[in-house]
Amino acid sequence: MSDVIDLSDAERRMKGALEAVKHQFATIRTGRANPALLDRIEVEAYGTRMPIKSVASIGAPEPRLLTVTPYDPNSLKAIERAIRDSDLGLNPQNDGKIIRLPIPELTEERRRELIRLARHMAEEGRVSVRNVRRDEMHDIQQLRREGEISEDDERRAEAELQRLTNDYVKRIDEALAEKEAELMEV
User: Fold this and answer.
1) Phi and psi angles of residue 118, each rounded to the nearest 5 degrees, phi first
2) CA distances (Å), origin 51, targets 40, 65, 71, 109, 133
3) Mean pLDDT for the stretch of residues 160-174
4) C-beta atoms surrounding 68 within 10 Å
5) Which residues are within 8 A (CB) of 75 and not within 5 positions of it... i.e. 6 or more apart?
6) Each residue of 19-76: pLDDT tens digit?
7) Which strand (E) or helix (H) includes residue 22?
8) What is the mean pLDDT of the chain?
9) Cβ(106)–Cβ(31) under 8 Å?
């Protein structure tokens, strides 16, 4: 591998795509309570939309229960409304100080729906990784056209870039397989 071609930026971007997919997977509800489940929820508070983490602390005291404790008790109703209006299918229970979110068992139909969603998220991640490869390939070919690297260096860099791409696509596929197994677990 030539010293001229540095693929660390490509690797950093591919790693970012993988992390983004894993973070998205964490927002998909399984049968277990996971505070990341609420990451996508935004609350109308103080005249603006804010992530739920900015207005409340989220805990998982039991495997099938999440608790949401607002930093400001006045935002309790807004948080409850945001959770109820979300696509998570959770029914918040408010006791005036804290919101409890019992996590119900998933139906077979809902599991299949969530698997489809996870597969879509994984495909978006794979597309991101391939876009990084495309951008880097273009840069490598540009260096070759400008005479800054030899044909051998170009081939080696492209082979290394393809290996990197395959590795990150495989990692996304492994994360997807894990998520599917977690969703099908009864």
Assistant:
1) -60, -40
2) 7, 20, 13, 29, 33
3) 96
4) 25
5) 43, 45, 55, 56
6) 999 988 887 877 677 888 888 888 988 888 999 898 999 998 888 889 999 998 888 8
7) helix 8-26
8) 88
9) yes
